[in-house]
Amino acid sequence: MSGTIVNVVLIIVGSLIGSVFKRGMKDSYQDILMQGMGLAVTALGVYSISKHMPNSHYPVLFIVSLALGGVIGEKLDMENRFKNIVSKFSKGNLAEGLSTAVLLFCIGTLSIVGPIESALNGNQTYLFTNAILDLVTSIVLAATFGIGIALSAIVLFCWQGFFYVAAGAVAAYITPELLTEISIIGGVLILSSGLSILGVKKFRTMNLIPGLFIPVVYLSVKSLIGF
Predict the structure, then answer these.
(1) What is the DSSP secondary structure assignment for residue 26, as one 8-state letter?
(2) What's the rounded Cα separation, in Å, for the pair 171 and 23?
(3) Which pick of 130, 132, 137, 139 has the fewest CB atoms within 10 Å?
(4) How many CB atoms within 10 Å of residue 121?
(5) Cβ(115)–Cβ(161) below 8 Å
(6) What is the pTM of this model?
(7) Which among 190, 197, 196 is positioned nearest to 212, based on CA atoms?
(8) Which region holds residue 202: left if phi is over 0, alpha if psi is between -120 and 50, else beta?
(9) How would DSSP label each residue in 106-154?
C-alpha cells in the first residue's frame, strides 16, 4: 500500500501548502481563486463526460443511475448529514470543498485501478501518478477552502484501501465497461460541484453519489443472468 500512503501524504502536504497561501490572501484574491477553481472543476467534469461518453455501451444508464442515486441520496439525506459533520470541525464552505475534493481524488480510473494493480502486481505507477495530480489539486483546493481539505485524505485512504484489500475478489469485476460508466457519472458529479462553486446553482451533489453504485449493481446482475 505504499502508493496509497504516498498519495495520502501528498494530499496532506498539499493542503498545508495551500492553507498557508490562503492565510496571506486578500478577499479579492480568494474570490478570484474560487472562480478559477470552479471553472477548472467544471472543465474537468466536462472532459470526463466527453472522454468516456463515446465509449459507453449503455447511453441511458448514467441517466437512470443519477435518478435512482438521487432518490436514494435524498432519502438518506446525505448532503445535510455531511454538512452537519463538517460544521462540527469548521465553519464556512468547507463542506462544499470537501465534497469536491473527495470526488476529484477518488472517482477516477487511477484511484480505482491503482490499488488493484498495486495489490496484484506490485505496480505503484498508477498510484504515484495519481499522488502527484492530487498534490497539485489539494494545494489549489486548500488555498480556496482551507486546511480542512486534508480530511479528504482519510476518505481516499479508505477508498483505495478497500480496493487494495479486496483486489483478488473485485479485480475481475472492474472491467473497462464498468469504469467507463462510473467515469461518466463521476464526470457529471464533478461538473455539478464546479457549477456549485461558481454559484450558478447549488447542487446537492452528495445526494447524487449513490448513483455511482447503480452501474456496479446493473452490470453485476447482467453478468450473472447472462443477458
Answers:
(1) -
(2) 43
(3) 132
(4) 10
(5) yes
(6) 0.79
(7) 190
(8) beta
(9) HSSHHHHHHHHHHHHH---HHHHHHHHHHHHHHHHHHHHH-GGGGGHHH
CA distances from 47 to 37, 53, 108, 123, 198 (A): 15, 10, 12, 27, 17
Distances (CA, A) of 155 to 38, 152, 221, 224: 22, 5, 28, 31
Structure-block grid coordinates of residue 87: 460544521
**For residue 196, what are the contacts with CB-CB under 8 A and spacing of at least 6?**
38, 96, 202, 203, 205
What is the Cα 134 distance to its own chain's centre?
A: 11
Tens of pLDDT, residues 156-199? 999 999 999 988 888 878 888 998 999 899 889 989 988 988 88
| 146 phi-psi bin (left φ>0, alpha ψ -120 to 50, beta other) | left
What is the maximal distance between C-alpha atoms in the chain? 59
